[in-house]
Design a protein that fits this description.
- Helices cover 34% and strands 18% of the residues.
- By secondary structure, it is an alpha/beta fold.
- The protein folds into two domains: 6-31 and 138-280, Rossmann fold (3-Layer(aba) Sandwich), CATH 3.40.50.1100; 47-136, Rossmann fold (3-Layer(aba) Sandwich).
- Helix 5 packs across helix 7 and helix 6 (170-181) packs across helix 7 (201-215).
- Mean pLDDT is 89; it is low at 317-321.
Amino acid sequence: MLISKIEKYRVFDDDIFVIREDLCSPFPAPNNSKVIGLEQKLETLRKEGHHVIATQNTRISRLGWGISWLSKKFDLVHYDFYSDAGKRGVPFFQRMSQSFGGKIIPLRGNHSRIFGAMVKQWLKKHKINAYMLPLGLSMPEAVFSHSELVRVLPSDLLQGTFIVPASSGTISAGIIYGVALNNYRTNVISVFSSNFKISRHKKILNMILDTDIKNHLLSEKAIRKIFSKKHWDEVILNRRYGKVEKILTPFPCDVYLDRPAWKWMIENIGVLKKPVVFLNVGGEWNPFSGINNGLRGDGLTSKEEVNKYLEKLGGVKVDTN
């Protein structure tokens, strides 16, 4: 795995080292590091004889877009299920999914468990045998791939604090696993942007243990050791899921997850062990309209270029049966 780019920014009297993993998949790809590890998974599924995959997406998730992007490479059919309020038409993220051959399916529902049951019911009704990828791509391939990020980083950057914007916890699990594999004393802090106040400790720990079962690189005792307060902590921001953070950043930064983590980091920079590394997961996109109201997308592609791409797509086909 190669690091896309490391940029240094001055915040007050400290240098912040930003890992621009959003650049691992610039437009028309989803401009999000969550696709790291997905290619390996899809290649394995294809070799195992799978031809159809399905995903459920939250309204701010780019996973459907990313999975359709890679599914085309492996000649897989992707059913992209998304929550539809029935008011704004087809969202930009789903239009991008369709541009790579994804079959977009709108369903009414928000709660992940209820929505997941609706997806399975739809697939059963239409007699489609699809491999269901886990919500948030919480799978060993994604965890291990993000652990590789730690291995290739300069060791002098891993002597302080590593800030990870978090949602499902998959990327956090990968970074923590990487720290353990390389025997660093990095303080990893996962910043969750939601008002869901239950600790993700057990979920992240289980993801790491499941990953190591496949790789046999660490003992369970060593993995559990890194979950002491000395090496890992979580910050749960009291924010409504999907709320836009308006703080400005010197680089394109996801407005739902990454920007809140950046704001928290700035507010707490004085007490963080140096050097501070910030993982930028995704660029700036509006789920419904793409680039608007000053958003910068991937920072490489102009609004005009994005609009031209959309114009070439023509009409949108939605399966509502």
